[in-house]
Design brief:
Layout (H helix, E strand, L loop, with lengths): L2 H8 L4 H12 L9 H11 L5 E6 L3 E2 L2 E2 L3 E10 L5 E4 L14 E6 H4 L3 E2 L21 E2 L2 H6 L4 E11 L2 E9 L6 E7 L6 H18 L7 E7 L3 H9 L1 H5 L1 E7 L8 E4 L7 H13 L3 E4 L8 H4 L8 E5 L21 H20 L2 E4 L21 H14 L1 E5 H8 L3 H13 L3 E4 L7
Parallel strand pairs: 7-8, 11-12, 11-13, 13-16, 14-15
Antiparallel strand pairs: 1-10, 2-3, 4-5, 4-9, 6-9, 10-12, 14-16, 17-18, 17-19
This protein binds zinc ion.
Zinc ion binds next to loops.
Length: 441
Amino acid sequence: MNLLEELSRNEPSCLGQELYAFAASIYPICRSITGDGIRATLAAIQNRIPLNVSDIPSGTAVFDWTIPREWNISDAYIKNAGGNRIVDFREHNLHVVNYSTPVHAVMPLSKLRPHLFSLPAFPDRIPYRTTYYEENWGFCLSHRQLQSLEEGEYEVCIDSSLADGTLTYGEYYIPGNSSDEVLFSSHICHPSLANDNLSGIAIATFLAQFLSGRTLRYSYRFVFAPGTIGAISWLASNRDAAKRICNGLVLTCVGDEGPFHYKKSRRGNAQIDRAMARVLRDSGEEFTLLDFAPYGYDERQFCSPGFNLSVGCLMRSVWGTFPEYHTSADDLSFIQPLALAKSARICVALVDSLESDVRYVRQNPYCEPQLGRRNLYDSSGPDARTANLARLWILNLSDGDYSLSDIAERSGLPFSAIQEAARTLRLAGLLSPVGASLHDD
Ligand code: ZN
């Protein structure tokens, strides 16, 4: 069974719509690195997959970091002299600098101004700002609105709390035949931002549902944690599990219509790096491969020297480079159902590739077997050349040293053609597998 074929056959025409609808349903939640927004998000994921939720108390040391106090917020506003809310958290949660300390005061514009943030280059957008590790407070607003503020007194209120609590993350583990794990990780800490956050959550959740209940070669672990401190917390609490991660992917910014980007693991030539390159090549989608760099998302933690895991990062548009990034323009109009569905297909193709990436040996390695006699040499049909070539490549390279992906890479043929040829040759008794494969029967 080929997972990608199955997805295509069973794919509800509405897969993209489903992914989009899930992202839309959790878009309004005011998330942060701790607090009720994270719990509500995990609860929404839990409605789809049986997540295991962990709470790490404030003050706990996680490697060089300390779990901060928990932040929650119920309301925030700036009122003008007429008592009207001119900046209102209820209208958009980006209006408040995330992790702002509570404040309730009346002050002149001159004192308020250092606490106001806008984007002069995009005067209609609200920026996304945080102050996780420095106690401060602030509001974000459109530059147009900032410029329209008149001198005078303003009532400023941020009804937030910073108190001992927990940092929360969720994970879901699907056991396979091998205890070697494939990790999918998605950050869950951004408030109402669609591409940078919700797209990854939606696709990771779908993938977990899709793989759940299957007989699999690898075990799969899905981690939904707040960025940086959440990944660090998970790693600090799961050092043994981390050792079993043989391949992993951080999913983020996978819902916009930009071309795909895959950022390689720190190793640069790990199985995941080669598999993603091949999957993207075979997909026919536009893509770029990026070398590892120690900035970006949680691959930074997974690829830190003590772990050095084979974990890359899949994106469409690259964080920090698209103008909607970390602004109110990264909203539900910026992500598209079709783009989400294509990203989901790439992830399924990756799993398919990892699951099927086995090595074979020739039953009789001396010279080529006579394929015509076995009806294995196609002389007509549109795919005959590819099918014949794929069989010849496999028959030549199946000495136990080359996996199917090695053969796909070396031949330049699509992985699906190599998979199909391997299945045919195996059924004809010409090959036997080294190790187990689940998709060749
Ligand atoms: Zn971000």
